[in-house]
Amino acid sequence: MRVLIADDHDLLRDTLVMFLEAKGDIETATASDLEGAHKLIESEAAFDLILLDLNMPGMGGLDGLKKTLEKDGGQRVALLSGEATKEIAEQALEAGAAGFVPKTLPAKSMINAVKFMAMGEQYAPIDFMTAAEEPTSHPLAEKLTPRELQVLKGLTEGKANKEIARDLEITEPTIKLHMKTLYRKLDAANRTQAALIAREAGLF
Length: 204
Fold this sequence. Notes:
By secondary structure, the chain is of the alpha/beta class. It contains 10 helices and 5 strands; from the N terminus they run E-H-E-H-E-H-E-H-E-H-H-H-H-H-H. Helix 3 links the parallel strand 3 and strand 4.
């Protein structure tokens, strides 16, 4: 099974590759923008599934999905996003996407979703498509302060300290302090491990 993952967040992309290739029967290729993804689609053998990040460079929202669906070979294309609404997911499915995959999916569910779509089925998580907009408590989240959760979310999105500091309007040294506390609370050795723990727990 061959899967193309196109996402501009290095950490998230590399994490996905690691999860999928660990299964042994999935071969991956990667791109960091839509143009790079299209070059791979045109130059390599057909992929069983193409995962496109909704917000990466070149996408222009659902336009990038539609352009990719129009490529020769009739390859299956799914949307990957950490921020998309239920409405965008519905529009993507209506446009012919193989599925919609929230970046908040736990690793095991993500692998199952990829296999399901590659085999010709359409996928969208029922809980996401039917969820009311109410936050639910999470055992891991209860260990962390709201600010630590914001920093951890930035980590799982592959952002650098500088980007997280800018997003949260606090200084970089403050981010580093939050990181230290985060690592201790999550029993993580570094930022990659912290992001993996958060993803596997389905926190984001």
